[in-house]
Amino acid sequence: MRSLSSSRISRAIVGAVTSATLCLILTATAAAQAPGVGRAGPPAGDHSLTIGAIMQFRWTLDDREQADADTAGDGVGVEDDPLSQFDVPRMRVKLSGSAYRPWMRYSFQFEFSRTSGESASKIKDAIFEIRPADRSYRVALGQFKAPFGLQQLTSFSRQQFVDRAITDGKYTPGRDMGVMFAATAAARRIGFEAGIFNGSGESIRQTTAIPLFAGRIFIDPLGPYELAEGATDAGARPVLHLGIGTRTGRQIRGRTAPGVFTDADRQTALNGEFAFKTLRFYSTAEYFWQTEEQQNPVVGPDIESRGYHAQVGFMVVPRVLEAGIRYAEVNGNTDVPASSLREIRGGLGYFWRGHNLKVQADVGLLRYEVGFAGLTSRARAGLPGLGTRLVTGEALGDRQVRVQAQVVF
Questions:
Q1: With pLDDT > 90 as the criterion, what percentage of the chain qualifies?
Q2: pTM over 0.85
């Protein structure tokens, strides 16, 4: 066990001060804007409720090179046939609105399809916000997405392709429980978000003494950029988005080694965000740098990882038919040669009501370099797995076709 150090004490103090400051802001805002404080019973006020749903229906064809999923029978030792499967990857109900005052907002999202979490929790979002109508800031409490990763912060229902790039699971925290402060300025052309979270992952209570800190700043010089990929919702004027993000603390998505509570290994990451949208053209890209400590329970050199994705799309028929291409690459450990995973996809999207009613299809290739299988499990965390293969020491390529219909209301 490592000895108590001034740096650890400093980090604990910073975390406590951050949490206390955000809570004070929340309390002060509520007190300043709530008339009749101190009277018995809840104040009569504006209550609203909006009910929505998101449904996705997907067909996938996977052709995995030299794969063998059989553990018994005649198929053992024989390359698998392509796998065709139907799926309902997401089916969610969303409740949102205001309580007591218009600036006291809530949002609740419940998953009826597959999910993960403590005791198989189905809760995706459980958010309470103080969002004054005449102010440019907001405070959020509960479970929601930590502010890191542009594509992760963009809803799955607003993606240009059937799903996010391979960089997403590797570098972004996704949903977690915590508190966040956010603000914008210059007519929403400049903004930042910063928060403190458990770091344990979706619907998991704190499991280590180290929290997760995450934040981002951005600038949209031509006007506000809405979190939606593709050009189906583009206006007459172009929009440019630039941003940087950072996170530090424990390993994301609850990847800390089981049984480790004190002095859990730390993980730090940076990323750069880019997006550009016009009436018929859309492009986005992100680059990630990540450093992962190896001190507890196993001592080893830090794991340095790099990854990026870039995609472009063109509206063949404005607001109706879009074609796009994506390239992504992740190097799980830069010290291991020829160990990258690459993704290339081409896709089409047909829109009846923008992203709310659409059909998408894409064809892709996942390319595993020769050294990928030699990466440790920590270096491969968050990436598609190899599974059982009939060969070793060779580069492998998995082909995939996906078709997905989506309804949002």
A1: 80
A2: yes
